[in-house]
């Protein structure tokens, strides 16, 4: 039997400031809730054991009431370690009310060789709710001579009824991992999205899309980055990289232009990103 951990986060706007009420069971909790920019609540989530092994099940439930604005991040990578056979699972389910804003900005997820893991994210946005999110998946530790040469990693990112990304990466699937139509020999996949609970005004959607493309064109990962709008209320940026650091740098650059453009807010980075 593995660890069972759950964390419920309830964000509410009170006197012009978003406050969070949290309830946890097991090894999953809020390290700090900070307000470095006044009304926005910055939450840092931690998993004290430091990694997720076969049989572990972690579940995060998040609600944002009307007008709330939360930025959620982590102080380090999420690590899915080698399994003896049992599947390890992490799930995130978000329900965001009208006029709320969410920034889901964790550090990378590392799938170690031999893992049997599932990482599932679901975001239910009411009309008027908006979010910026990202996910960076790294396979193995190739620079430490620990490549992803065994195991499977299943990932899903969903806006129910509107956008769904779901796939399983098997270490033995050379056609996916090494083909130019797949990961092209790289082992880091970055996905970033801007999403709204209803269709975006075309001019606003186009401005956000061009801002992302402009940031990507000026970056070292320009040749392996693309941005598109698969649905009227969703923009998606995807990039392939050999290492985590360039991928995370690209996403942070796009976040720094999206945030003021979409919401008129300065890009106040969480302090934990600098530690």
Tell me what you see in this structure.
With 275 residues, the chain is mostly beta strands. The protein is built from 3 helices and 17 strands. The strands form 2 sheets. Strands 3, 4, 6, 7, 9, 10, 12, 15, 16 and 17 form a 10-stranded mixed beta sheet that branches. A 7-stranded mixed beta sheet has the order 2-1-5-8-11-13-14, with no helix packed on it. The chain is globular and about 50 Å long.
The tally of helices reads 3
Written as H for each helix and E for each strand, in order along the chain, the element string is EEEEEEEEEEEEEEHEHEEH
List segments where confidence is low: pLDDT < 50 over at least 5 consecutive residues: none
Termini, distance in Å? Answer: 34 Å
- Average residue-wise pLDDT: 96
Taking Cα atoms only, what radius of gyration do you get, to the nearest Å? 18 Å
Helix content, binned percent: 10-25%
Total beta strands: 17
Main sheet attributes: strand count, strand direction, barrel closure: 10 strands, mixed
- SSE class: mainly beta
Sheet-strand content, in percent, reads over 45%
Query: What general outline do the C-alpha atoms trace?
Result: globular
Write a brief structural summary.
This protein is mainly β and 275 residues long. Helix content is 15%, strand content 46%. The model has no long low-confidence stretch (mean pLDDT 96).
Q: Which descriptors would you attach to this protein?
A:
single chain, 275 residues, mainly beta, ten-stranded mixed sheet, seven-stranded mixed sheet, 3 helices
Secondary-structure blueprint:
Layout: E1 4-14, E2 17-25, E3 29-34, E4 41-46, E5 57-64, E6 69-73, E7 78-80, E8 88-96, E9 101-104, E10 109-111, E11 115-125, E12 130-139, E13 151-159, E14 163-170, H1 174-178, E15 188-196, H2 202-217, E16 225-231, E17 234-241, H3 244-263
Parallel strand pairs: 1-5, 4-6, 5-8, 6-9, 7-10, 8-11, 9-12, 10-12, 11-13
Antiparallel strand pairs: 1-2, 3-4, 12-15, 13-14, 15-17, 16-17
């Amino acid at each position: 039997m593995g660890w069972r951990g759950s964390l419920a986060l309830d964000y509410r706007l009170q006197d012009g400031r978003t406050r969070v009420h949290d309830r946890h069971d097991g090894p999953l909790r809020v390290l700090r809730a900070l307000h470095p920019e006044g009304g926005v609540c910055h939450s840092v989530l931690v998993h004290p054991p430091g990694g997720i092994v076969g049989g572990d099940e972690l579940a995060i439930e998040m609600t944002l009431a009307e007008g709330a604005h939360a930025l959620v991040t982590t102080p380090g990578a999420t690590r899915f370690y080698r399994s003896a056979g049992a599947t390890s699972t992490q799930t995130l389910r978000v329900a965001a009310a009208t006029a709320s804003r969410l920034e889901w900005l964790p550090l990378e997820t590392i799938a170690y060789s031999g893992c049997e893991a599932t990482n599932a994210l679901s975001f239910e946005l009411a009309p008027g709710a908006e979010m910026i999110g990202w996910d960076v998946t790294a396979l193995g530790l190739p620079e430490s001579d620990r490549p992803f040469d065994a195991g499977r990693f299943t990932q899903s990112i969903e806006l129910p009824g509107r956008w769904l990304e779901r796939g399983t990466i098997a270490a033995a699937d050379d056609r996916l991992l090494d083909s130019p139509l797949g990961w092209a020999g790289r082992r880091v996949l970055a996905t970033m999205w801007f999403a709204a609970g209803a269709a975006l005004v075309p001019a606003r959607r186009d401005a956000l899309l061009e801002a992302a493309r402009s940031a990507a064109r000026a970056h070292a990962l320009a040749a392996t980055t693309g941005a598109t709008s698969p649905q009227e209320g969703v923009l998606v940026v995807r990039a392939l990289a050999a290492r985590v650091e360039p991928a995370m740098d690209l996403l942070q650059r796009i976040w720094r232009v999206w945030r003021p453009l979409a919401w008129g807010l300065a890009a106040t980075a969480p302090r934990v990103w600098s530690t």
